[in-house]
Amino acid sequence: MPKMRPPPPPPPRTVQLSIFSWNSRLARYVKAGQYENAMRLFQQMKQEGMSPDKFTFVRVLNACANLPALEEGRSIHMQIIQSGCDSDIYVCNSLIDMYAKCGSLEDAWRVFNTMPSHDVVTWNSLILGHVRCGQGLKALALFQQMQQEGMEPDPVTFVGVVNACANEAWRVFNSMPKRDVVAWNAMILGYAKCGQGQKALQLSRQMQHEGVHPVPVTFVGMLNACASVAALEEGRHIHEAIIQSGYESDVFVGSSLIDMYAKCGSIEDAWRVFNRMPRRNMVAWTAMLGAYAMHGHANEALAHFKQMCEQGVEIDDITFLSLLSACRHAGLVDEGLCYFESMNSDYGISPTNEHYACVVDLLGRAGRLHDAEVLIKTMPCEPNATVWMALLGACRIHGNLEMGECIARRVLELDPGNSAGYVLLSNIYAAAGNWDLSATVQKLRLERDVRRQQGRTWIEVNNEVHTFVVDDQEHPQINDIHAELERLSVQMKDAGYVPDITFMLHDVEEEEKLFHLCHHSEKLAIAYGLISTPPGTPIRIFKNLRVCGDCHSATKFIAKLVGRAIIIRDANRFHHFENGLCSCKDYW
DNA sequence: GCCCGGTGTT
């Protein structure tokens, strides 16, 4: 929950305020997202003897929905019935939305069933409510039902369909007679969210080709897509289009730009956007904090957080996640623990599983496995798989077989469909030389039909994304890439590089291990970057998993030998390689 | 005046 703001200034007492001026004041609070203030204003207007009208109820219900505040919503529902406003369709739609957002679908249905008539917004609110509660199938059934009852779906209905089921979304989208910008937004955001950035970008191009103009939300979706596939050049083009559209001062767009530049490897551009924003909210500040965290700039992150506090910016649970994440990446154990303590005591924010996972990782990485385990045991709620997984990751880093086995058992129980647990345990066994048990775990994974994620590395050159997998033979310039790697490996050996085969956790002969190491997707992408971009320019590559340890040490040599900065984004963070060193100081 | 958008963990 965000920190409480100071109460709104009382309206002047000299003049009896009209209902219109109360309502417009209320509307301003709701629009600005100051829902607590809206609630307080509503109480105040009743105290001063002003009777709310249907416009008042719509706005105050909106505030309840967004807080969310179920009990207050129920009490307002009673007042609505007493005032006779419950025949207004706007009020009823707002009630459905409020109940759905507060998680009470039963109440939402009760309102729906007592309404004399429904419009498309009624159906949309109900459909989206079910989607939010994870009832996608029910949402789709409602979508069918509304059509059977002669109600024409609109683009917002389609937003619900996209979020309920991707396959269904595509079918409906193609059969829509008129696709306005809301429908396009839903598709673009839907694809961006599920990691299909290329598809999202392709859709946004198609949208513009069909003459539909992007609005701020569209740009947010497009920037998300760029961030997920790390398409920096494309992101810059979109930034230009944003400036041309006059949306550059939108805080949503600004926060997405910060995130896009940070995730594409350019923290300088992220800072430039943040610095130039005319109006910054908590999210913009938090996006910048997250940018520092993922690039390992811990000191800047802590200073940034301090500035947030000094300037009275709101702090929420996500701000703390970013802050703890900054400590985690830099190994600032004491600072991290101190901030974790202050969350509850100074800010009134209860730590979630995610915060615990972050602190467990912070302790675990630093080798304090026992402290991490104790922390988990003292959690006020039941730890989820993510928390245990953080400890399991630490067991792998520190080669703690005994604890790893025990933790893995819990992880595999809590989240049997996630390949990460199997892979970590199998790697713990392999690192200890126990190939039989390692294979047993992999066999169990296959028996349960859990597929492990294949490692992929990609690089954007001339607006085109080139993707590599281990031993890749598909790339048209693969021979040139191999030649470049051959050339480099001679120089690297002279400079003192020794391939580290412990990172090859397979039971194969050493010769073979070496061969695979030289053909890791990271090295292929770096070599391609070297031969296809001008000398001296930085190379940005991206990997879907954690970067391999041997590739990490090899990249330090390569960056020094070729005199170029190499920036790698792996699944967790950024590594900036320059002059033989990595920004993570080998702590990752 | 109601329904759709941004930041984080693993």
TrEMBL record:
It holds the Pfam family PPR_2. The keyword Repeat applies. Keywords: Repeat. SUPFAM superfamilies: TPR-like. Residues 496-588 form the DYW domain. PPR repeats lie at residues 18-52, 88-118, 119-153, 180-214, 250-284. The keyword Repeat applies. PANTHER family: PENTACOTRIPEPTIDE-REPEAT REGION OF PRORP DOMAIN-CONTAINING PROTEIN, PENTATRICOPEPTIDE REPEAT-CONTAINING PROTEIN. This is DYW domain-containing protein. It comes from Sphagnum jensenii.
